[in-house]
Specification:
About 65% of the residues lie in helices and about 5% in strands. It is built from 4 helices and 2 strands, in the order ααααββ. It starts with a helix and ends in a 5-residue tail after the last strand.
Length: about 110
């Protein structure tokens, strides 16, 4: 009974690791290439390959293996370090939505009645 619960916990942990890598891969895929250069990080293709490998490794190997741990570290580095730098450089979430200025009204920018 205890082993069954432990296996369930490991299964949930494996899914969480896969979701973490998939989120990083999805986010990197929708970022612009020039934002990676402007943030002085590795290029976009590098992160797509690393996060794709991390996703595949977390799916194929056991959590007790060495490779999924490296994949988790790569995913965490992308989410904690690279993603905020890209958001700061690109000025948004990178998914195609344009964010307006704080002075924008419903019909465009507000110019103070001039």
């Amino acid at each position: 009974m205890l082993m069954l619960g432990f296996q369930g916990l490991l299964g949930i942990l494996k899914i969480v690791l896969m979701v973490l890598a998939a989120f990083g891969l999805f986010d990197a895929a929708f970022r612009r290439e020039d934002a990676f250069r402007a943030a002085d990080k590795q290029n976009k293709m590098f992160w797509l390959i690393i996060l794709g490998i991390a996703l595949a490794v977390s799916y194929l190997f056991s959590i007790f293996s060495f490779l999924p741990i490296i994949g988790v570290i790569a995913s965490i580095v992308y989410i904690v370090d690279v993603r905020p730098a890209l958001k700061q450089v690109s000025g948004g979430n990178g998914w195609g939505r344009r964010r307006g200025s704080s002075s924008d009204g419903p019909y465009g920018p507000y110019n103070g009645g001039r």
